[in-house]
Amino acid sequence: MSEQIQMVIQAKNLTKTYKMGEIKVHALNGTTLEIAAGEVVAIMGPSGSGKSTLMNILGCLDKPSSGDYILDGILVSKMRDDQIARTRNEKVGFVFQSFNLLPRQSALSNVELPLRYSGVTRGRRDRAKAALEAVGLGDRIHHKPTELSGGQQQRVAIARALVNNPAIIMADEPTGALDTKNGKEIMDLLLDLNRQRGTTIILVTHDPGVAARAQRIIRICDGKIEEPVS
Fold first, then answer.
1. How much is the pTM?
2. 62-89 tens-digit pLDDT
3. Would 211 be classed as within a structural domain?
4. Residue 135 belongs to domain spanning
5. Domain total for the chain?
6. Which residue in 186, 174, 180 sits closest to 97, CA to CA?
């Protein structure tokens, strides 16, 4: 008997409609997809295709207008806002193109933030330090973002995403603000985390070179999955 594949993301018939004055914008139109635990997936599509809306829903930053979304076995689409916030903080780590670091805080303090939001007190600093060491910044823990290169700032952002040991890391254009060398190093780091920890990695990217390093590409256009490639 073959081993059953665990699905960390199951989305069925997701729709998302925004109102802009009298106009309704259908950002998602019945999107259905599954992503297995430990998979590396790239989501690609033209501007306005719905990929950012999809990422926001998968990351529990937004709710679908209709449809069901199950994250790591939890039916998110029926939750209260406070339950969603807790699930998001525990299950998902985010990496953004613009890093989103607090400029006046040290790398260590930035990485501690998700633990503060989770109410963790014991061992918080040690966990943040271990996350920074895991991304190769053990000697930069007291540096502020302005004292770090772009590549180092993105490593801090990845450490922050890792510190709660989430099931998934969602990276929105993680190499978009970096030069080619640093972009490759960040992708190497994400893929190493996937291999070593089994973390599911979901990338939103315009870069075919980044997408090519994923195990699977999901293409979205006009709010619908267009061409999933295994």
1. 0.89
2. 999 999 999 989 999 888 999 999 899 8
3. yes
4. 7-225
5. 1
6. 174
